[in-house]
Amino acid sequence: MSKPVNVYSTPEVAKVLDEALPSVLETLNYKESFKLIDIKLIIGYSIAAVAGTSFLLDKKLGHKNVIAYQEILVACYFFLSALLWYFKKYIEKSVTYTGQHSQNGSKIAISTSYEEAEPKYYVTFVKNDTKDEEFKRVLETTKVFNEAGYLQTKLLHDWFQEQLDTIEIKKDN
Q1: pLDDT digits (tens, 9 = 90+) for 47-106
Q2: CA–CA gap between residue 141 and residue 126 (Å, rounded)
Q3: What is the largest CA-CA distance in the chain?
Q4: Do the Cβ atoms of 138 and 120 come closer than 8 Å?
Q5: From residue 40, how far is each of 34, 47, 80, 91, 130 by CA, in Å?
Q6: Which of 32, 18, 30, 8 is closest to 156 using CA atoms?
Q7: Alpha-carbon distance 98 to 22, whole Å?
Q8: In angstroms, rounded to a whole number, what is the distance separating the alpha carbons of residues 40 and 70?
Q9: DSSP bridge pairs for 31
Q10: Would you give the end-to-end CA distance of the chain in angstroms?
């Protein structure tokens, strides 16, 4: 059994639920996609490469000899930093999980949030990358944690199964 959490700490409960998502959705035949994380890593490593290049040029050739190059590198650094900010704020948002169903190939993105001092876990399902297929649900955290603070993964699995089944029924209508 996992480590108990303080069920009165909303951030701690949300963190445990976020960490449980991949294993729960794997049992529902979803394979996790790391595309958003990969893009964020590529941008971040590019920023580090630009900063490293700037440092090495300055160190090897001297500050006065590389001012033109430094201006270009600073512009690149600014552009990549702005791109990373935009990506995190508008593309990645609060996406906790992205995956694809192994049998029918449908894609799913799950965003989660919570409000302080409320035992509610807000879950937004986006099917096949379209806003038309966006469904918002609320999970009462008291339903998936016992009194001792242990996550009841079977109950969490059943709740996600129920939500995904409901979404499929709505999509077909």
Answers
A1: 999 999 999 999 999 888 999 999 999 999 999 999 999 999 999 988 999 999 999 899
A2: 21
A3: 68
A4: yes
A5: 10, 11, 11, 10, 21
A6: 18
A7: 9
A8: 24
A9: 100
A10: 40
Instruction: Reduce the DSSP state of residue 12 to 3 states and report it.
Output: helix
Q: Are 47 and 81 in contact (CB under 8 A)?
A: yes
CB 47 within 8 A of CB 77: yes
- Single-letter amino acid, residue 134: E
| Token pair in block for residue 97 | 């999980």
d(CA 136, CA 122): 7
pLDDT tens-place string over residues 125-135: 998 877 778 99
Tokens of 131: 């806003």
Specify whether the backbone of 117 is left (phi greater than 0), alpha (psi in -120 to 50) or beta: left
Structure-block tokens of residue 4: 């108990």
- DSSP-assigned beta bridge partners for residue 76: none
